[in-house]
Amino acid sequence: MIYQGSAITVSRDEDGIATLTFDAGEASVNTLSSATIQELGDAVAALRNTSGLQGLILASAKEAFIVGADITEFHGLFDKGEEYLVDMNLRVHDIFNAVEDLPFPTVAAINGLALGGGCEITLAADFRIMADTAKIGLPETQLGIVPGWGGCVRLPRLIGADNAVEWIAGGTQNRADAALAVGAVDSVVPADALASAARTLLERANAGELDTVARRAEKTGPLKLNASEQMLAFETAKGYVAGKAGPHYPAPVEAITVIRKGAGETRERAQRIEAEAFARLALTDVAFNLVGLFMSDQAVKKKAGAYARQADRIAQAAVLGAGIMGGGIAYQSASKGTPILMKDIQADAVELGLKEARKLFGKQIERNKLTVEQMAERLSNIRPTLSYGDFDGVDLVVEAVVENPKVKGGVLAEVEAEVSEDTIVASNTSTISISRLAEHLKRPEQFCGMHFFNPVHRMPLVEVIRGEKTADAAVAATVAYAQAMGKTPIVVNDCPGFLVNRVLFPYFGGFSLLVEQGVDFQRIDKVMETFGWPMGPAYLLDVVGMDTAVHAQAVMAEGFPERMAREGKTAIELMFDNDRLGQKNAKGFYAYEEDKKGKPKKVSDDTAYTLLEEVIRGQAELSDDDIIARMMVPLCLETVRCLEDGIVATPAEADMALIYGIGFPPFRGGALRYVDAKGAAEFVKLADSLADELGPLYAPTEKLRQMARDNARFYDAAE
């Protein structure tokens, strides 16, 4: 044994081949934590002091190779400041450079995911062999930073500037065949052949068949691009990447700048450019929030996994109500391998659901994600029916009929009588109380909510709603099914609107008040889109549908009358009363025309302005910041109330639900991180100033006032 650490061991065989194995012990995956990096430095020093070695294999004892740096350390490291971060990265560069400069050939045997720092350590090796099931990439830009341990330096020299820009700016995870095609790896083999293939490659290098010296010279010298090639590779890419990333995400464009600035430099100088750019970006709010978002996402998935492990696999599902929503649910279930019955009382509705599923599978074929044979196989997982004939073998039923409590209650009672006593029944309701719907059932403990967001195939969130009598087993089974469908389930307790819609409608309430104050709804949309929302509130209402919004608004007003009931007609109700339903009938706040792809394109409509004169009660002079405050404060306060009321268990789950469910700007981290960023005291002060004018919708809770007095936060500094 050459070296033995907690996460790294280095052994040698009788032929002088050393193997450095990453093995993080009881952890499920390898990460490059600060402690592991220290061990790596010690291990490399031991290798340099060992005589007679003929080569080194970098390997992993885990299913993944290395999934990256230990992101749980990031906030603590970022807090140490720019100078510390530059020095830290340069110390890591020294260690990786020492690997690259070892006096014998090296090969990375990539058996699984090699991401971020895990990818960068493989780039320091002379050669890379990849299992055919593995993936490799540099996703740092998705965290608001750039690769800091050589990715911006070595990858362009290895695969060319254009390919490296695509990988790094896009933050993609790349399959083995794609990595081989661009030269990121030297060979792709079955996983069980990885070790022998790595040894064979080292033997060829030692025999002179492979030029290790030339490989190293290519990676450590300047990038071979003339001025015109640099212009084409970098400046053209910058414009494209900037347009795709948007103004709130600077890291992808900065990555291109780092590659360009380092292109003509030697290894160490290019690495300093990279280290300095990493440190600058790490101190931005965007990086702080995106790192926090990653950790919240991991916490949510871990919690869902704990639920799912308590449940048996859902082997057969069913959906009641075949339309667009039912078809979307059926598609999602079938595409992920769970067979599903799709039932409706109308043959036309069943055909509509099948058409929706076929359309979605067809798009997968167009994008080369599926073959025709694979589509046929997955489509066969959907079995349409007009009867309950096969429902006795169903493990879980999703009711997705019209959003009407009487209709839903009747259908739920009907299906309960047709399924076994062990079958879970779930309602895809967006607003109706689960406890109220459970009153129609003989087995309320087997019933819960399973709220999908539209369109089902795109929206990652599923709210799993626990009613007063819902059993833990029913929640666990529903969470397991949502995960099997590729969704992120978040368990919430029952209340009007549950979590996401309960929080969304105060946001719409703020919008209605602004319209009544004479603020142009198109200006509100523009301000909120600039703030980071994917679409402004008027446009969002048109997409949701004014009929859906009016129904949900009434549920919210009944449930929370003090702050959500309104006197007089709102702008939303006005549109509904004038049959302006939004995209459903091509007229709402905007009018809609078909674009070249047949999708609805919004255009301004003077009729909407004429109608809105009925609800306008003044002409307030408000700045963009005023508009943002009037929109964001009620949304954030309702999120706070949901947490205080126990509707959602943790700040992380609350924030992830809003990001996944309604497109809360990810770079702002979620509603509760947004309050933390402002500071509780400052936020309460702002809310109080608005409440004096606009009423209870803007009034802080007593617990939030106490947080302000205590200078408390929703998240710990390290989260």
UniProtKB/TrEMBL annotation:
The enzyme's E.C. designation: 4.2.1.17
UniProt entry tagged with the keyword Isomerase: yes
Tell me the pathway: Lipid metabolism; fatty acid beta-oxidation
Question: Which enzyme class, named as a word?
Answer: lyase
- InterPro entries with a match to the protein in the record: 3-OHacyl-CoA_DH_CS (IPR006180), 3-OHacyl-CoA_DH_NAD-bd (IPR006176), 3HC_DH_C (IPR006108), 6-PGluconate_DH-like_C_sf (IPR008927), ClpP/crotonase-like_dom_sf (IPR029045), Enoyl-CoA_hyd/isom_CS (IPR018376), Enoyl-CoA_hydra/iso (IPR001753), FA_oxidation_alpha_subunit (IPR050136)
3-hydroxyacyl-CoA dehydrogenase C-terminal domain sequence ranges:
497-592
Identify the PROSITE patterns for this entry: 3HCDH (PS00067), ENOYL_COA_HYDRATASE (PS00166)
Gene3D superfamilies given in the database record? 1.10.1040.50, 2-enoyl-CoA Hydratase, Chain A, domain 1, NAD(P)-binding Rossmann-like Domain
Task: Name the reaction it catalyses.
Answer: a (3S)-3-hydroxyacyl-CoA + NAD(+) = a 3-oxoacyl-CoA + NADH + H(+)
Q: Where is the 3-hydroxyacyl-CoA dehydrogenase NAD binding domain?
A: 317-495
Q: Does the keyword Signal apply?
A: no
- Keywords assigned: Fatty acid metabolism, Isomerase, Lipid degradation, Lipid metabolism, Lyase, Multifunctional enzyme, NAD, Oxidoreductase
| PANTHER family noted in UniProt | TRIFUNCTIONAL ENZYME SUBUNIT ALPHA, TRIFUNCTIONAL ENZYME SUBUNIT ALPHA, MITOCHONDRIAL
> What family is it from?
In the N-terminal section; belongs to the enoyl-CoA hydratase/isomerase family.
Question: What is the protein name given in its UniProt record?
Answer: enoyl-CoA hydratase
The record lists the organism as Halomonas piscis
